[in-house]
Amino acid sequence: MEIAGTPLLIFYICPKYKPLFRMNPRFTALDRIHSLEPLPAIDRSRRASEIFGENVFTPRQMKHYLSREVYLKLKESTDAGNVLDRTIAGPVANAIKAWAMDRGATHYTHWFQPLTGRTAEKHDSFLEIADGEAIEKFSGDELAQQEPDASSFPSGGLRTTFEARGYTAWDCSSPVFVFESKYGKTLCVPTIFVSYTGEALDYKIPLLKSIALLDRAAVEVCNYFDRSIKRVMPTLGAEQEYFLIDERYHDLRPDLVLTGRTLFGAGSARGHQLDDHYFGAIPERAFAFMNELEHEAHRLAIPLRTRHNEVAPSQFECAPKFENLNVAVDHSLLLMDLIDKLAKKHKMRALLHEKPFAGVNGSGKHNNWSLGTDTGKNLLAPGRNPKENLMFLTFFVCVIKAVHEYADLLRASIASAGNDHRLGANEAPPAIVSVFVGSQLSKVLDDVETPPRRKKNDTVSELMHLGISEIPELLLDNTDRNRTSPFAFTGNKFEFRAVGSAANSSNPMMILNVIVADALKEFKVRTDSKIKRGRKKESAILDVIKEYIIASKSIRFEGDGYSDAWVKEAARRKLPNVRNTPLALDGYLSVKAVKLLTTHRIFSEPELQARYGVLLEIYLDTVKIEAQVIREMSRTIVIPAAVRYQRELMESIRIGKEAGMDPSATTTQVELANEIGIQLNALRDDLAKLETESLAAGKKTKMRDVAIYFAEKVVPVMADIRQHTDALEQVVADETWTLPKYREMLFLK
Length: 749
Ligand code: ADP
Ligand code: MG
Known about the structure:
Elements: H1 6-13, H2 18-21, H3 25-34, H4 48-51, H5 59-65, H6 68-80, H7 89-102, E1 107-112, E2 120-125, E3 127-130, E4 133-136, H8 140-144, E5 145-146, E6 166-170, E7 177-181, E8 184-195, H9 204-222, E9 232-238, E10 240-246, H10 247-251, H11 254-259, H12 284-299, E11 304-309, E12 315-320, E13 323-324, H13 325-345, E14 348-351, E15 367-373, H14 386-405, H15 407-413, H16 417-420, E16 435-436, H17 439-449, E17 463-464, E18 474-475, E19 487-489, E20 494-496, H18 506-532, H19 537-551, H20 564-572, H21 581-585, H22 591-599, H23 605-658, H24 667-698, H25 703-729, H26 742-746
Parallel strand pairs: 1-8, 16-19
Antiparallel strand pairs: 1-2, 3-4, 5-6, 6-8, 7-8, 9-13, 9-15, 10-12, 10-14, 11-12, 15-20, 17-18, 19-20
Adenosine-5'-diphosphate is lined by residues 235-237, 239, 319-322, 368-370, 378, 490, 492-493.
C-alpha cells in the first residue's frame, strides 16, 4: 500500500536525508532565469514623434487649455525661468488639472530634489469634499506652493524640529508632467525645496541661481563681440551608464539589496578581456527593457537618442540629446526613476552604483556641458569668422581657467562613497582634475602664448582663419579623443566624465556654472581696465586670453590619465589628487570656495556648512552600512558555506582512514580543508580588525575625523576581508556556495 507523502515524511523524520532537501537557492534562480522569456514587445504602432511629450504640459497644451492672455503671461514666466506670476496661478492650475485629468491623473505631487541625491514627492488627491459633495480640485496655491514636512529630509542642522516645515514652489522653467505607474497616474510639479527660514534644502535652488549668474556674466562678455545676444543658457547632455542583472540574483545578495554594489565576489574567468560587449548585440531581455525605457522617456519629452552596450558585460548606456541645463537635470533624474521602475517590470534590477562589481568597469554619468545663446549660437563651437573665433577662444579659455582655479571645488562636487571606487582606483577617470583639449587646440593655445612664425604650407581648405595676426589657424572638426581625461573638450562642448552614475548632475553642474561665471566676470574686469587704459578692444581681449592661458597651463594634460607617470607629473605640477570623499569635501570649505560661493550668493555660509555636513554624513552612513553588511554576510553566508564544505572534506578523510585507505589517497582533501582553515582564520582576524577600527573611528569627536578614519582605516580592512571571502569562493564546492557569482550575474542572457 502506498501512502501519499510517505517519502517526504521519511526525509523529514530522518535528519540524515535532510541535506538532500537543501536546495541551493542559486541553482533555483539559475533554473528560473533559463526558462524566462523577454516581456512581450510594447505597442509601437504610434511613432516616436507622435508620442513625444504626450505626458508633459507643453506650450502646445498650454495654448489649448489656457486663454491667450494667460498663456502669454505664463510663457513669459517659463521662458525667463521666473517663479509663477501669482495673478495667473488660479487659471493655470485649473488648466493643468483639466489636462492632467484628461490624461487620467488622480493625484498631484510637488516633485523635488532633496539632498539625498534622488527625487522626493508627496502625493495629494485632487478629490475634495465640500459641503458633502465630492469634487476634483486643484487651486493656484496648490500648484504654486506646498508645505511638506521637511524633517525627514537631510538639512545639515538648518532646521530645528519645531520648525521642520519646508516649502516647495513650482520652478516653472521646468514643465509639469504626468508620471504613470501600473497603479495610477500622478501629476508632478517640479519644485524647489526651501526651509521655513529661507535656506535651500535641495539641489535645484543653487542650480537655478548658478544658471542666472552664468547668464549675466556670459552675456556681458558676449557683448564685446555681439550686441544682439541677450541671454546665455548652459546646456547639458547627460549620458547614463548602468548595469542590468536578473532580479533573482539581486535578491539573493544582501550586499546588492542593501548597498547597491557587490561587497564580495571573485572575478569571473571571463571579464571584458574579449572586448566583445561594447556595442555588441543587446541581449533580448535588455533590449525589451530599453525599448520600453525609450518609449516611456519619449512620452515624458526626455529626448533619449542612443542606446548601447557598454564596456563591461551587462553594462549599458543611454544618452538623451542635450537640453537647457535645468530641464536636462530634471530629465536625468526622471530617467533614473524610469530605469529603476522599468527594470523591475522586466524582472531585472538596474544598478546605478558607480562600481557594482570589483574588477569590472564602473559606471559614470558623462556630463556634456556647453553654453548656448538666445541667438542660437553655441559659444563653445569654433566659428567661421575671426570675430566668432575670438569669442570662442574667450569662452574656451575662461572654462580652462575656471577649472584650474577651482579644481578642488570641482573635485568636491563629484565626491561620494560610490565614486571613490571609480576615481583614481585604476580606472576612468583619475581623481586628479585636468583638462584635455586635443592637439589642435593645444597648439592654438601654445601659439597664442608664444606666437610662432607663420608657415606657408598649411592647406587653406582645412584651416579656418582666426584672422587676427596673433592667433594661428585652427583645424575645423578635429575632435581627437582622450577617454582617460576627467574633463575633456570634445569639439563643441566640454565633457565632465568624472561625475558618478548615481549622482544628481545638479551639483557638479552648479559648481561648473559658478566657477565659469567667476572667470568670465574677472575676464570682463581685466579687459575693461585695459581698454580704459587705451588698448584696442580685440588686443585687450587677446591680452587677457594670453594671461589666462599662462595662468592655467598646469591643468592641461593630453596624455594617459590612468598612468602612474601622470600621478607623479601632477604632483610635480602641484595639482590636487584627493582620493577619498571626506578629504575631497574639504573643497567646499576652503577660504577660496566659501568666498566664491557666498559673494555670488549661491549659498550663505550656514547653508554651505549644512550642505557639507549632509554630504559627509551620507558618506559615513554609506560606509557604515557596508561594513555592517560585510560583517553579516561573512558570518551568516560565507563562513557557514566554507565550514560546510570543510566538514565534507574532513568526513571524506575520516571515512578513508576508517576504510584503511592509504593517507595519500586523501591528500587533496587535506590540502583543501587546510586552505579553507587558513582563509577562515585570516577572515576572522580581519573581521576583528573591522570591529576594533570601527570602534576607534567612533571615538573621534568631529564628524570629519570619523569619516577620514573610516576612509583611511576601515575601508581598507573591508577590502582585506573581501580577499579572504573571495578566496573561499574559489575553493568551496560550487554546489555549496549560495551567493550568485559574477559569471552568473554579468552574463545575463
Ligand atoms: P560623443 O560622440 O562625444 O559622445 P555625441 O554627439 O553623441 O558625442 O554627444 C554626446 C552627448 O553630448 C549627447 O547627449 C549630446 O546631446 C551632448 N551634446 C552635444 N552638443 C552639446 C551641447 N552643445 N551642449 C551640451 N551637450 C551637448
Ligand atoms: Mg561620452
